[in-house]
Amino acid sequence: MKRKIKYITKLELVENLSDNEKRDLKQVTEKFAFRTNNYYNSLINWDDPDDPIRRIVIPTLEELEVWGKLDASNESKYMKVHGLEHKYPDTALLLVTDVCGIYCRFCFRKRLFMNDNDEVARDVSEGLEYIRNHPEVNNVLLTGGDPLVLATFKLEKILKALAEIPHVRIVRIGSKMLAVNPFRVIDDPDLLKLFEWFNTETGKKLYLMNHFNHPREITDEAKRAVELVQKTGTTLTNQTPILRGINDDPQTLKQLLEELSFIGVPPYYLFQCRPTAGNKTYSTPIEETLDLVEAVRAEVSGLAARVRYVMSHESGKIEILGKTNDLIFFRYHRAADPKDRGKFMVYRRNPEAHWFDDYTELVDEYRVEVQEEYV
User: Fold this and answer.
1) What is the pTM of this model?
2) Which domains can be identified in the chain, with CATH numbers?
3) What distances in angstroms separate CA 265 from CA 24, 249, 256, one per listed residue?
4) Residues 6+ apart with CB under 8 A from 353
5) Contact between residue 81 and residue 127 where contact means Cβ atoms under 8 Å apart
6) pLDDT tens track for 269-312
7) Potential cystine with 63: which of 106, 154, 278, 316 (Cβ 3.0-4.6 Å)?
């Protein structure tokens, strides 16, 4: 029998919240959408007001503090046709849904869940045609929203269409579903058959890019879902932002990276939390976070330590490499502008910086002419 996961979109239906909490937090959910489910709520220690799983999904009044932008990385700049972003030559993003298993409070695409948003394409045919006409695109990322919210037959149509495009060699699915509702995988053999078909019959490769933020999300059920997906020949990886009060302490981050490597879901990226509206309470200073990342990387195996600490900036994916007493070093891991590819950058340190712009907007004070010794 398939387990019944109950999705909750109204705060007043969360039984573990007091009436006062529901009343106070209503103003937050009127601004930013709310969604959770009974499985994910069961992971919360409701006796702890600072519980990290609670911080992931339950609103806080701090989200109302004015800070950041709804589209912090200016993704709309790279929207080529409805529902498709094309920022780097070889990679296209298809926004296939505006729904997730839960709505993370720190989501960088929370704008998609607002009533007046129209970035997601219910019909992806225009995006598929764009990919067909751009032979430089060899990998496609299905995102949104969470593609695994889609019914399997809808996901099948998209995967079969992509399989018929000769120059597309890789399809990635960005999903937090294994963390928030592993029964989506465990109880759907048709989904697993679809994954296996794509990996064995098309000559192409499927990747599932997971989004485990905290080790408590790696439950026995989640591990079972991971095993089932692995058996289909799908490659699994993980990416997470560093989040204040969730995974920004050394022991938690170390445990997360290690547990992921133990179950065969190697960590891929650690992201700087984007300066998205409502996210100030989750953001950590870059230089403080760099110390955290390097301290943890020194204590885990090479499989876990290969994770990269990056920012998904408007201009590209910028890796934070290291620092001295006075300077901090960056490099474009991916760049939207060809002239920036691989570019190495040196700035004077700014302990208050939460984003790359906090260095570049104070060029006279923080920029350093790159001397030969730094190249």
Assistant:
1) 0.94
2) 67-283 (3.20.20.70), 307-375 (no CATH)
3) 39, 21, 11
4) 285, 286, 287, 359
5) yes
6) 999 999 999 999 999 999 999 999 999 999 999 999 999 999 99
7) 278
